[in-house]
Structure formats: C-alpha cells, structure tokens
Amino acid sequence: MLSGLPASIVSTLVSIIPAMPDTDTLHVNRDKDFLCDFLKRYWFAPPVALWRAIEARTLSTLDFPAPMLDFGCGDGLFTEAIFGKQAGIYGCDIAPNELPAAHRSGVYRHGVQFADGHHLPYRDSAFGTVYSNSVIEHITNPQSVLLELARVLRTGGLLVLTVPSDHFRELLDGVKTAPTKEAAEHYARSVDELFAHHHYHTADEWRVLLSTVSIKLTEVRYYISPETEQLWDRMNRQYGIGKRSLFNLLASPRLRPLGYQPAMAKIVYDHLMPKLRPHYDAKVTDRGGGLLVIGRKLN
C-alpha cells in the first residue's frame, strides 16, 4: 500500500497508470547496432559507451510486458536506444538534475516522476515490467527498494535488473595486474568508491533476495567478457573517467561553442570502433563483469 502519503495524493496515483492487457509487450530495437549508437552518443566517455552498448544489446533480447517502469531512468537516452519512443513507458529517478532531460527525451509519454525508491508514487500492481539498468548496486541496502519494486509489479510481471556481477572486482585490469593481494584490494576499493558500488551478489544471493519480496528468480545471465572488462578498466584510466584529464577538458560541454567537438567526436569514433567491435561481439558464458537478473512476481 501507499502508506504515509496523504489520501488525496493516493487517490490521484491510483488512477495514474491505465489498465493494459496482459498480452501487450513493448517494441524492442533488436536489430540495432548499439555500439555504433552509443559510441556516437557517448564519444566523450568511450568506456561508458562500450559498457552501455553491451548492456543494451543484452536487454534487447528480452520481451517486456507493458506498461513498464524505468526505475532510475536518468536522462532517458539509454532507454530510448532500446525502446525508442512509444506508449507504455514510465520513468522515475531520485536525481532531480536528470529529470528535465528525461522529460525532453520524449521516451516517457506518461511523465517522469521524482521518486525515492523506498516510496514510489504508483499504485499497487501498476506495471507489467519494472526494469532498472545499473541502479541497484548504488543502493546500500536494496531490500526495502526491492520490496517497493515488487509492490508496483503485477502478479506474473517481470523484474529486470542489470548490475555488476559477483566477478566484477576480480576481472578488473587493475586487480589482475596488481603486484600483491593488498594492492589488488586497494585498487578494487578505489573502483567501488569511484562508481559508488555497494555490493556484488551471486545468482544464489539474488534468488534469496528476490524470494523475500515474492519474486521468483527465473534467469541470470552474465555479460561483459573478462577481456572486455579489463579493456573497460584500462580505458577508464586512459580517458580519465571520474578524474581530470586533457581528454575530459577538450570534451567538456563548456567548450562546445568553440565548434571543434564534432570533429573530435568523429576521430574518437573512427579510432575506437574497430577496436571495440570484437568486445561488443564477444560471447560470455559462465563468467562476466555484468549480470542480468530476471524475476517473475508471484501471487
């Protein structure tokens, strides 16, 4: 229930999501070249482009019953790449600076809500899918948030999460090349701090976590090959992700009026596309840096 909210707000939220048949599924851009798309979108952060492209391709293999909540939607660009602009997609995020861009994206025709994951502004059983890309790992204690995601998910609906996997830390290039165990742990902690990662759960741990909120784990799938994560980690250092660097300075939005950035973006794209393509296409089996988690809401 929507406990703690005024009755007038609850009555409004109860009708915010229109009823949709259980058979409706969202259109997904399955044949899209996400590497091409994201390297153009995120030329200023190439390792981000690589990771996001592989995430998007992984998600594009799924069916998403409508309506769908994009929990932690950010600016909407990631979801737009997969789903385009269509009815049945709702967005929410706790970062107010992201909401204007999400509104402008046109992805969320039914609006974008400012929302804390512990108290979502939607009625019970509102969605056929709740999907969240690279968000849950940033929540210190995800249990209460998972409970809230389950509340707004209808019986039989899907919870779809992408998170860094239980192998993420050991696959970091800085961990693999560290001279000692202490140095490896120090490096892994620095990455945890840089990206605000609070946990890396195994498949069995996800099964238990989801079972406590009446969601049955139906699939876990690794993505991001070990070699790709090592490259991603090296690129983070090379391009100064999270730090000051000459590349970041030249790619800064503040310098956009100078007019050279389109040429810079093309140079980055042309240089990196052939190098990143094998990693985008790499097959992943029993070990990878990312983990796709899918669960189905029980009665």
Report the CATH C-level class of the domain at 1-25 and 64-164 and 201-224 and 285-299. Alpha Beta
Structural class: alpha/beta
| CATH fold naming of the domain at 1-25 and 64-164 and 201-224 and 285-299 | Rossmann fold
CATH fourth-tier homologous superfamily of the domain at 1-25 and 64-164 and 201-224 and 285-299: Vaccinia Virus protein VP39
Q: Termini distance? A: 16 Å
Overall helicity = 40-55%
Estimate the strand proportion.
Answer: 15-25%
What gross morphology would you assign?
Answer: globular
Radius of gyration: 20 Å
**Average of the residue pLDDT scores:** 92
* Cross-sheet strand order for the largest sheet: 3-2-1-4-5-7-6
| Secondary structure: number of strands | 7
Unreliable stretches, pLDDT < 50, 5 or more residues?
A: 1-15, 18-23
What characterizes the major β-sheet?
7 strands, mixed
Describe what you observe in this structure:
With 299 residues, the protein is α/β, with parallel strands linked by helices. The chain has a domain at 1-25 and 64-164 and 201-224 and 285-299: 3-Layer(aba) Sandwich (Rossmann fold). Helices cover 41% and strands 16% of the residues. It has 13 helices and seven strands. The protein has helices spanning 7-14, 34-41, 46-59, 77-83, 99-105, 143-151, 168-171, 173-176, 181-195, 203-211, 226-238, 246-250, 261-281; strands at residues 68-71, 89-93, 112-114, 127-133, 153-164, 215-223, 290-297. Strands 3-2-1-4-5-7-6 form a seven-stranded mixed β-sheet, sandwiched between helices. α2 packs antiparallel against α3 (46-59). The radius of gyration is 20 Å and the shape is globular. The chain starts with 6 loop residues before the first helix and ends with a strand. 38% of the residues are buried. The model is unreliable at 1-15 and 18-23 (pLDDT under 50).
